[in-house]
Amino acid sequence: MMDLFERIKQEGGHEQLLVCSDASSGLKALIAVHDTTLGPALGGCRMWPYASFEAALSDVLRLSRAMTYKAAVSDLPLGGGKSVIWGDAAKDKSKDLLEAFASYVDSLGGRYIVAEDVGISLEDIEWVREKTSYVAGFSVKDGGSGDPSPATAHGVFCGMKACLEEVYGKSSFEGKRVAIQGMGKVGSALAKLLHEAGASLYVSDIDPELVANAIRDYGADPIHGHEVYRVDCDIFAPCALGGIINERSIESLSCRIIAGSANNQLKDLEIASVLDERNILYAPDYVLNAGGLINIAEALEGYDQERAYQKISKIYDRMKTIFALSKTESISTGRAADLLAEKRLKAGKRV
Ligand code: NAD
């Protein structure tokens, strides 16, 4: 088996990995602090029934590194971190388990700030907050920024405008066809914004009720399973899973733009170059979906929604910078986003 330090080096050179084990509550968790050059590492806690320790380790290392890039490219005074609790959120979650997890977060003394993610709700975060103050994204009534999903959708919507301008010369959604994969918290908020802006929608979700809601509310056309990759549209918006743009799906794509909220949409960065060759404009996911993080970061200094949303709107400008850099350097938009983030990290490195 590969040495853990070698593994960490290959996954992006994380500063710290904390293994959290509490026998009485059954807690098995990992906290990864990837990089604190620009500030404390902020990132959600995911609770998931991973098939193995290896799967949990991969997830936490990959996700925490992505948080560093997301914060850096978004000009936030934050580093990148993430945590995973190994377990089934529906069966294994308890107040004791969340409290034990919170003690581990607290032990890091603020190097890591936790927020919600898949399997961890706003309510769970309130329990965690009883044991540690290193928490973000808690409810509005307590001075937090609440559910980040509407802010994420707002950011995706603003970034999509830059994409439309790049491809069609104007940012109007009027008459444009958008296919959304995943009508969850972000997908449904995005659908509302797009519908109000005049776009026509194709929607897909494994939950038929969410699709039915979109048909009723926005006159959307339902799409089944893999058909969402094939549908002839202007924008394909992945808002469900990661890794969906791969060697197989790329052949089917019939869109001009890929712009959605899902994390790690591309199987790898090579795929970004193939998208370029196919003349499909890719909006780098961690730039486009940073609205939720920007919203949470605002709350660290006293939350003001108007100010937060103004900052989120800048995703439009950031996207334009990335498109310009991609052209001048003859690199993919994915690589251009990485370059911007790395430039900011380098400038922030302590000497
Ligand atoms: P969510 O769980 O509310 O919604 C995801 C939806 O995708 C669910 O309705 C689910 O049924 C659906 N889905 C799952 N597999 C599918 C498939 N194969 N085909 C179609 N639909 C499928 O999650 P969310 O908070 O809306 O987040 C969506 C994506 O955006 C995730 O990848 C998340 O990591 C990312 N993201 C979310 C935020 C945020 O603020 N919530 C911020 C940044 C990134």
Can you tag this structure with a few keywords?
351 residues, 5-stranded mixed β-sheet, Rossmann fold, binds nicotinamide-adenine-dinucleotide, 11 strands, 15 helices, globular, 46% helix
CATH class group of the largest domain: Alpha Beta
- In the CATH hierarchy, the architecture of the largest domain is 3-Layer(aba) Sandwich
Structural class determined from secondary elements = alpha/beta
Question: What is the overall shape?
Answer: globular
| Count of folded domains | 2
Strand order of the largest sheet: 8-7-6-9-10-11
Overview in brief:
The chain is α/β, with parallel strands linked by helices and 351 residues long. It contains 15 helices and eleven strands. It has two domains: 135 residues, Leucine Dehydrogenase, chain A, domain 1 (Rossmann fold, 3-Layer(aba) Sandwich), CATH 3.40.50; 197 residues, Rossmann fold, CATH 3.40.50.720.
Q: Can you characterise this structure?
A:
With 351 residues, the protein is of the alpha/beta class. It folds into two domains: 2-136, Leucine Dehydrogenase, chain A, domain 1 (Rossmann fold, 3-Layer(aba) Sandwich); 149-345, 3-Layer(aba) Sandwich (Rossmann fold), CATH 3.40.50. It has 15 helices and eleven strands. It has helices at 4-10, 53-73, 95-107, 122-129, 149-168, 185-196, 208-218, 227-230, 247-252, 270-277, 285-288, 291-299, 305-313, 315-328, 333-348; strands at 16-22, 27-35, 41-48, 79-86, 112-116, 177-181, 200-204, 221-222, 233-238, 255-258, 281-282. A six-stranded parallel beta sheet has the order 8-7-6-9-10-11, with helices on both faces. Strands 1-2-4-3-5 form a five-stranded mixed beta sheet, with helices on both faces. Nicotinamide-adenine-dinucleotide is lined by residues 148-149, 152, 181-187, 204-207, 210, 239-241, 261-263, 289, 292.
